[in-house]
Amino acid sequence: MNDNQFVPPQDAFTRTVAIRFSHCDPAGVVYFPHYFDMFNGLIEDWYTEQLGVDYSKLILGDRHGFPYVHIETDFKIPSRMGEHLDLTLLLTRIGRSSLTVTIVGHLAGVERLRARLVTTMTSLETQRSVELPHALRQKFEAYLRLTGQAQS
Amino acid sequence: MNDNQFVPPQDAFTRTVAIRFSHCDPAGVVYFPHYFDMFNGLIEDWYTEQLGVDYSKLILGDRHGFPYVHIETDFKIPSRMGEHLDLTLLLTRIGRSSLTVTIVGHLAGVERLRARLVTTMTSLETQRSVELPHALRQKFEAYLRLTGQAQS
Amino acid sequence: MNDNQFVPPQDAFTRTVAIRFSHCDPAGVVYFPHYFDMFNGLIEDWYTEQLGVDYSKLILGDRHGFPYVHIETDFKIPSRMGEHLDLTLLLTRIGRSSLTVTIVGHLAGVERLRARLVTTMTSLETQRSVELPHALRQKFEAYLRLTGQAQS
Amino acid sequence: MNDNQFVPPQDAFTRTVAIRFSHCDPAGVVYFPHYFDMFNGLIEDWYTEQLGVDYSKLILGDRHGFPYVHIETDFKIPSRMGEHLDLTLLLTRIGRSSLTVTIVGHLAGVERLRARLVTTMTSLETQRSVELPHALRQKFEAYLRLTGQAQS
Asked: How many angstroms separate the CA of residue C124 from the nearest CA in chain D?
């Protein structure tokens, strides 16, 4: 049995990224900083499409920021131009002002990379962390219930 | 005392990156995937300028790859357009085919971010890891002696 | 009447790009090099989805390149995070080994930017231009018939 | 005689860019949007290092923007990892609120690419173009005298 096997929890938020020419380096595989850009895009889409929260309004309207404070990533199998990589977002932890998400990149049931990202909600005016608003916290908790226990 | 204080070991490889307009996002700070691109550039320069190994020949000539297998990063203080961020490369561990480096981003003696990156030397032909060549290992060991104990 | 009005020809290839946080700069609008990356992605999708030609096989399998030899772009109206920009690809000219495409970025019927890109088909082995293969030329001509006269 | 020969005017602003692994695509040459990022960086450095104007203060302090309204580029010879590309900035035209610069990429006396970029000074508050301030115009005119006639 392949220990890289990955089956996303039912109802977990998954989006497929087409690996493009522009993602790849002279070795023919994705240049790794592009994965972090894909993660950020996935989180943006998760807010908007899954939680029903317009991410751009959170930033531009409410003047909130979501800087990353910690990121850990394991790169297991490289991806190549023409492949379609599935990215699944799992919730790991809901803190007072922070949120920890796990993003798993997988293809055909095999895990290719896994990242844990800790982000903190801040005010762009004061640059300080702010408590997660109640309505947002409820949406996070609903997603956690939907996708199962917090993932490590 | 500020626990973010950072004094690089004497003789450690440090390069300064001018934070540009293009690095920054609508929140006015560096968009985080750019840091990973800066790390890769620093490692490239370290091979060429510090170790005297032409990194492009390692890739294009000898057909070696240096994919990252694990990355951990703590983002402590954001950086803004017009600032000059110092990046210092420390060696953490020399393995059989892998190398672990710690990169500290600092400005005016204060640590802003810290990353640990594990990279494995591979053959681009076989896509498998290869043992670090003796000459390269000696250069890594010399740098380790120059900059002090392995850093965690 | 607004002279920036734009109605794409019926059956023209159009894809919508969500303008993301990561596309935008401290001025809050798309940092212009990202548009060129979007253009390249649109052309890639046009080959694969409209013409039925797997672009990654053209590059990786047949070892062809499609370098740009000339690009002209007019930027008329900036785009912001949260907007959805439509990109329409029109054929301008089919040469012996070159192809000229016009890409129009538009939103709600108003043209925001327009680019003309000349690309040449090359062999990655010889680095020289090659004549467009007959089958590919036929697909280009069919798209030209579908979308009307060559556009300037 | 090679009609791609290029000798920059004496005293023209030139900076060298090390072509990195990260700039290059699976075809082994610079992925073209990176050139536009290099152009923007060159212009930024030209303001700060040549004209003595802190570009970040113009943006963040004075709240000015310098969006591009038109760009034309000829790509003549591709560049590869490990090469050092010289970029020279020439002034083409000083308008009421716009500035046209020509950037030539060259290596060992041979021109590899040439771009003409028209930028307009705007107010980030009103999003409208503003007249170039007198002090800035004088600096542009001094650079024009230094490097010879306006270039086409």
From this structure: 7
